[in-house]
Design a protein that fits this description.
The protein has five helices and no strands. The protein is globular, with a radius of gyration of 16 Å. By secondary structure, the protein is an all-alpha fold. The chain has one domain.
């Protein structure tokens, strides 16, 4: 092995870093005037994505499990939101929700089968605690 991370590891990690940045950016974009508490909340919601990306990069098996649950939840939630927005449901969705759904739905639809694969099981062998 040449020391580089396998493609699946860096793709999954990159997705969660991008999701964290979009989470923070969307809140900054929608919060006018800028206020401390919404930005504080956005920072920590984004930080959770960053910690998950770090855990995937370190190939921690628990993080793979959390990423699978995250993908299932995002597919369910944002698919409904996106469908309602496209069908012009009588509900006002912020632009940030629409943008996040356009990122999350296709990305999670591609990432979930990979995370469930036997190959991913081999790539994420490390326990949460211990060596």
């Amino acid at each position: 092995m040449d020391g580089r991370a396998p493609r699946g590891v860096w793709v999954a990690s990159s997705f969660f870093v991008l999701s964290g940045l979009v989470e923070i950016g969307a809140t900054v974009y929608e919060t006018r005037p800028l206020a401390f508490w919404p930005l504080w909340d956005a920072f920590f919601r984004g930080a959770l994505h960053f910690f998950l990306a770090w855990g995937l990069w370190r190939r921690i098996a628990f993080c793979r499990s959390v990423a699978m649950v995250y993908c299932l939840a995002m597919l369910t939630t944002y698919s409904v939101v996106l469908a309602m927005a496209l069908l012009h449901a009588p509900v006002a969705f912020p632009d940030s929700v629409k943008v996040q759904s356009l990122l999350q739905v296709p990305s999670c639809a591609l990432l979930l089968p990979y995370l469930r694969s036997p190959r991913a099981s081999q790539l994420f062998p490390r326990p949460l605690f211990g060596p």
